[in-house]
Structure formats: C-alpha cells, structure tokens
Specification:
With 444 residues, this protein is mostly helical. Helix content is 41%, strand content 9%.
C-alpha cells in the first residue's frame, strides 16, 4: 500500500515549506519515494490514491480504472517521469515536432518527389494542378494559411473557368496534396476534406465512333502501320499510345487468335499487369500484313515512332481530316469506348471487362454509351414467335465474333513461356499462321 508523508524545508529567509511525498513498496520490495512537491493536501491525497491504484494494477496485472487512466494522461511530464523511474508506468511517446510551414509550390514538388515510378503523363497532370493552385493562391502562399473556406473559394473559381469533369479532377488532386501535408504534420486538417469534387465524367464529350467513319479514316491512312493504329484503338480497345509501346510479336498467339497487352497504367496492381484480347476479324488482316512487313529480327508490332503520344495522335487526326470527317472529342478514348459499347451487346459483362481492362464502375461512368442502333432496335417491331432467338443467344446480332472460344477471364501472357509468335512452326502453310518462310531472330 502507498503511504503519504510530508517533508519540511526551511527557506533562506527562515520560513518553512511543507511538501508531500508518496512512499511505495516495502516488505520484500524496495521502498521507493515519489515527491509531489509543494501541493495542497487535497491534491496530495488524490495523487496518493491514484499511485496506489497504479501499484495494485502493476502487481496484479489488471487494467487501470477509468479515473486513474484519465489522471495519468493529465499529469505533468515531471510527475509522469517520476512514476516511470519507480517502474509504475511506461515512458510517454514523444510528441512529434510540428513541421515548419512550407510554400504551396514546395508542397506539390515534395509530394511528387515522394512518389516512386510516376508515369510521365501523371507528372504532367500534377504540374497542371500546381499551375492552377499557384494561379489562384499565389506562388509564395504558405500551406498553413489555407483553410476550408479558401478551398471552397478555389472550387468556385474553377467552376467559372472549366467543365465539371475538370473541376472534379482538380479538386481530387488538390485534396491529395493537402492530405500529404497533413500526414507530414504541416497541417492539422485537410482544408479540401469536405469539398465535394463531383464526377469526372463528361457526357458531352462522349461520342460513338461508327464503323462507317472508321472505314473512311482507314481509307485515308497513308500506310498499313497507321491503319493498324486505328483498328487497335477502335476494335482492340487499346489505350494509345501506352499499350502500343510494349506490344511485341512475342505477345501475339496466332494459333490461339489472341494477343497479350501489357498495361503500364496498372503494372503495380497485382493481377492487372496484363490482359488478353482476341484477334478480332477487324484487326487480323492489318496485323498479318504488319507481321509480313516486319524485318527479320523485328521485335515491336509497330515502329518505335508510334510510341510517342503526340506522334500517334497527330497522325490519326490528319487521317480523320483527310477523310472529310469531323474530328470527335477524345480521339482515342472514344474509339476505346465505342468498342466496349459494341462488345457489351454481344458478350457477358465479365468477358468485356476482362478484354477492355477496367471495372464495371469505370465502364458505366466513362465508357458505355447509348447509340442510334439502340433506338432503332427499340422502335423496330418484335420478331414473330418462330423467329425469336433462343434464350441462350445474344439479344443483339453478332457483329464481331471473336475466334477464340476458350477465352474467358484473365489469362497468362501468351509470349512469356512460348516461342515468340509460335514461330517454332515456321514453314507451316496453314491459314492460322502468317506465311513466313524464315524464322525471325528477335532482338531488343
């Protein structure tokens, strides 16, 4: 049991001062003293009761009662350190020092530097957000001076200048930056935490690219390489140019009529680094011609110049203009979205999402569209009873049958554990293999 006693000190002027101390231990345990200093008798008795509860909990291995736990949290570090020295409590966790305030520009640069393996396009996007933040708040604005009201003003400023999808995107990125500042203890709270970003989908920029339009564009392309870019975007659903960059002949499985796409956007997500896509009939002739025209030893399906986003975009845009077609928004994204919209008419959802490479939520918000064909079919008279399709047949007519009946779900890349392009069969004249007489020598 703890006991309370007093000590008397004589000051230099002759006056006396009484202080309190609590004694613990005794018997077989070492007697130890906890000096409370010059406090009132009421406070000394309260401390003695709490210290006695600490000693009992220590000896019996039982948890502290709420009153003692609250007292322990509230006492000054000086008394707490004395309790640590006698073995009644553990040392307190040191309180991290608050980070010095930083400028807004420095915060964004620090955040970007903290992220490893950022894609060039992501860095460009962050630079855009930094530019907008600086334009509104000022280059030398300190992060700690920005509160929730300022964040709300920033959103209203964006709304006056940009579309809703752009506003949503910029608010989400700003929230990322300020959440990082909070994690670094530059801020106590994120001023953008309660600011509603909205949806990044812009229905006005969705555009279904019809097959008749693509036929005109293909006719206006200068050579097969450009035609292959168009059909891979429109009928393969590839992201251009990121998924063209790594597409090699070793990824093409002619016997299985499919090819493997490496997905830089998701390469850090386990199980999503690649996806397998059928060689659709719309793609096959252009892909075979490209194979025939590739020099021996050629590795990439398309020459390296097509790996540049600006080059691929500008070239296809010129073909669109030469074809006399009005350029549509989001040139490549809407090609990909149009393909997914078509595939959804014929194949189960999980198959389409596997081929296109995203989730149902993303498809519904950003890709899928209602087309004129949907309205025409809805307005057409229903077929007679004898013409009605069987229940296991697709509702829409099969326009793009894929020649790969056993493709389902996620598959392993075709080119990782096989001879590239099944060239071990060089000389085979069957129609399923490109007519090559000599086995190429692949190199980097």
């Amino acid at each position: 049991m703890a006991t309370l006693s007093t000590e008397t000190y004589v000051r230099k002027d002759g006056s006396e001062s009484k202080t309190y101390r609590v004694l613990i231990g005794g018997g077989k345990r070492q007697r130890q003293t906890i000096r409370l200093g010059d406090v009132s008798e009421r406070i000394a008795n309260e401390a003695k009761a709490r210290i006695e509860a600490l000693e009992t909990a220590k000896l019996t291995g039982t948890p502290l009662d709420r009153t003692t736990a609250a007292w322990l949290d509230a006492i000054h570090d000086t008394i707490h350190e004395k309790l640590v020295r006698v073995g009644l409590v553990e040392p307190r966790e040191p309180v991290p020092e608050e980070e010095p305030d930083v400028a807004l520009v420095a915060l964004v640069e620090r955040y970007v530097a903290s992220r490893s393996n950022l894609k060039p396009n992501t860095i460009r996007n962050y630079e855009t957000t930094k530019r907008l933040l600086v334009e509104h708040f000022g280059k030398d604005r300190l992060v700690r001076s920005i509160h929730a009201g300022h964040a709300r003003d920033y959103r209203e400023w964006l709304v006056k200048k940009y579309a809703a999808a752009t506003v949503a995107r910029e608010i989400k990125r700003a929230r990322q930056f300020f959440e990082y500042a909070k994690d670094c203890r530059v801020l106590d709270s994120n001023p953008f935490a309660k600011i509603k970003a909205g949806s990044q989908s812009n229905p006005k920029r969705k555009h279904f690219v019809g097959r008749d339009v693509i036929d005109k564009v293909l006719a206006a392309c200068p050579d097969n390489d450009w035609r292959l870019v168009v059909v891979l975007a429109r009928y393969g659903g590839l992201r251009i140019p990121s998924e063209l960059e790594r597409l090699t002949w070793g990824d093409v499985d002619w016997h299985g009529m499919r090819f493997t796409i490496r997905v830089p956007k998701k390469e850090r997500l386990a199980g999503h680094e690649t996806r397998v896509v059928p060689i659709f009939p719309e793609i096959e002739p252009y892909l075979r011609q490209a194979f025939d025209e590739t020099p021996d030893g050629g590795l990439y399906v398309l020459p390296r110049r097509f790996h540049n986003e600006g080059y691929a975009y500008a070239g296809v845009l010129r073909a669109v203009e030469r074809a006399g077609v009005t350029p549509w928004p989001k040139l490549f994204v809407n090609c990909r979205a149009s393909r997914e919209t078509e595939l959804k008419r014929e194949y189960p959802d999980h198959v389409v999402y596997s081929w296109i490479g995203h989730t149902e939520a993303v498809a519904l918000e950003h890709y899928l569209m209602v087309t004129d064909a949907d309205f025409e079919r809805a307005a057409s008279p229903p077929p007679s009873a004898g013409e009605r399709p069987a229940s296991n047949q697709p509702i829409y007519p099969a326009q793009n049958p894929a020649q790969s009946d056993d493709v389902s779900g996620r598959q392993e890349p075709s080119g990782q554990e096989k001879e590239p392009v099944s060239l071990a069969f060089a000389g085979d004249t069957s129609s399923s293999i490109p007519p090559r007489g000599v086995e190429p020598r692949f190199s980097d």
